[in-house]
């Protein structure tokens, strides 16, 4: 008999290569995660194990299943069976049915690794494997924001779909290549499909073909904002460390304002491209509320992120240059944000004038600032040093690479109590905490927290820190002299110096410090 292939909960009919295949479903797949379309005959988009449970061939304890490929059909029905609600699909290119696999196949496959989702013949041609992986040199998670407004109309809407389809194919979509989704902009935005829904160009093409024209005003700003905020979550298939891109297709001009949406997209680390087609002619300009709409929305108005096509007819020659832009990883200037590309060092006064209970308030302040950032091995990093006459590195930038670990390390800092040598502490931190990361990709920030006069000079060490590329914020409480605070702070000093009489006042400063870091970050990138 045929050896069976161990598959995962998520393997779909279209992932299997043979006409008839014996597979082994794992146990305890989460039922609510199954995508199943049809009843008895399932669209090949369906999860194989989900279909097998739905049809009663196996239970959630898993088991052997024989999968038979069938031709595509229309109107796959939605039926609730065995704890799974299958969904309606109007048409799909291929189908499959499932029957119980034989016992000996199950036994044969026990010795085989469960992680392999591939037929085990070993004779699989190299090419299909690469095709499935896609173009590994193009790393991008892309939302095509298509125009579904009355501006474009049904006829050109279809030409737009053809163009997007050609771009999708040329991108080389695959498991390790680009992933794409589509959002339609009209009166209200509609997410048509997410990054996680398809990982092969063929499926994406089919999904694009199925899109219906919505009509309505061209509320592109509303759609862009919605897409930047909602589309790229990890649960919707966005991948860590891969550039997020929105390609906005605009026929004519938008009915609403794009400026706010552009700001939101940049804040979320999304690279916005605008493909404007049939841009407003001289006699139409009176109807356009903001002639500079393209520059307001794109990632940078340096020309790279805007793309023009005179018309939707004969656009094939525009496909390749657009794809080349979308695949140029190093040009995606908006992927780095103040939230994911900074190192923040906290220099915490542990002198005896602070006292245990106020020290806790200081740690709370540190936590609340740190919490705002995306801390990870490829993102932002946090370090903390406590000082009296001496300095103690509580944790360095490389000690903790998740937000949870950083926050728990902050909670565990023990109060030292002693004198105040702030200048020495700044020199120590510059050298031993920032030294190891000074050539790294992140922008460096130091937040000095103190409640009193320093016994040594702070001006020299602070100037040296700034010269080493560290932006310094000084936060003073109670008896901290304003001159010291100003001497430590980066230029412009007013916006980098903070003071409060009481330790309880630290809490109000948190948003301003975060905003200050983001402002400096953006200014350094312009």
From TrEMBL:
GO BP terms, alphabetized: sensory perception of sound
Biased composition regions of type Polar residues, renumbered to the chain: 110-119
Keyword Glycoprotein in record: yes
CDD domains: vWA_collagen (cd01472)
Alphabetic keyword roster: Disulfide bond, Glycoprotein, Repeat, Secreted, Signal
Limits of the LCCL domain: 3-96
Chief place of localization: secreted
Compartments in which it is found: Secreted
Entry GO terms, CC: extracellular region
Source organism, top-level taxon: Eukaryota
Record domain VWFA: where: 141-326, 343-513
Region (Disordered): 110-132
Protein's job: Plays a role in the control of cell shape and motility in the trabecular meshwork.
Name recorded for this polypeptide: Cochlin
Gene name tied to this protein: Coch
